[in-house]
Amino acid sequence: MEIKRKLEILADAAKYDASCASSGAAKRNSINGKGMGSTEGMGICHSYAPDGRCVSLLKILLTNFCIYDCLYCVNRVSSNIARARFTIDEVVQLTLDFYSRNYIEGLFLSSGIIRDADYTMEQLVGVAKKLREDHDFRGYIHLKTIPDADADLLAQAGRYADRVSVNVELPMEESLERLAPEKSALTIRQSMANLRSHIDESKQDKKAPKFAPGGQSTQVIVGADDSTDRSIIEKSATLYSSYRLRRVYYSAFSPIPDSSKKLPVKAAPLMREHRLYQADWLLRFYGFDSREIFAQSDGMLDLDIDPKLAWALKHREQFPVDVNTCARELLLRVPGLGTKAVARIVEARSIQKVRLEDLQRLHVPIKRVLPFIKLPGHRNSKALDSAKLNQMLRPEPAQMSLLPQ
Predict the structure, then answer these.
(1) Class of CATH domain 3-287
(2) What is the pLDDT of residues 209-234, one digit of tens each?
(3) Secondary structure class of 239 (helix, strand, coil)
(4) Which of 68, 246, 276, 81 is nearest to 166 (CA)?
């Protein structure tokens, strides 16, 4: 099979993997003429798939052949799809060729399971090793590891890759047993713990070789089972605390050809995926607890408004807050104020009082913020007591265009 055809098949097969960010990589470049590639500048270049997902220009599978029969996966062994497989040398050459043409700054590599987990992991490591040692490639490399693989192979992956990841696949263990019987939640957790141990050791011992400086991440499929948003976010909170993950990625389930009757017939709303990302940010950057996000709810996030606004509307008694005197933690809970805006407000108010025009210069959404804050010269006008506040702050419905933009 021609390389071009392989690339078409295996790049398309990789589009379901959302975890392709390049944050956290160590700064390396080849400006002095040594080596090839860079992790600086814009990082990995991106393209947008037809369904709106942001994907790397070189995000590929080593192969979409797979001995597993995970019901939610289009590459499962029982799936009737076109198959292809790259050799190690082909992936290495593609990476170098794409980089030399300024199309990419790195490689995201995953794979179906061929022969067994160890053989597959050995092939993935072989690509990264050849790029680093034979070609002095200094760009970003993310390897999707195989949890069943030997611990030594996982350790090798971390030595050559900037980031490693193990997918937990589904939020509930019983769902994994039902839809992916060859996979083990226990094995996945053990592999995550093993990777965390290596990452911690590398950080503690400055003389030790770097191990996955970008940390580890994982991905959860949303909507393939009946997990609630609460259970998904609680799972993420556990993963962050237990394994210090850099990111949990959420991927809305999409029906696949010849799918099992155990799977939903409809795709999960992409807005649900978006709300989960917003709730995830509340956990990581805004000081929220998963129990707060879902208090007084049925366990599902509101698709019409973001979870931070939903929380604020349910806790109006905590507002308005005085922008010039309240704690940073309270400012972070004001709808419309992001972490950067809060940092600038805290810095500015140490010099002089922050006024409405100062917020306008920070480009914060004034209409959204004003009901929840106090400012010199601004009267709240009892906006928080309005029964219509919820409706006022909801985004206006927009007509989707039928024509390509």
Answers:
(1) alpha beta
(2) 889 998 999 999 999 999 999 999 99
(3) helix
(4) 246
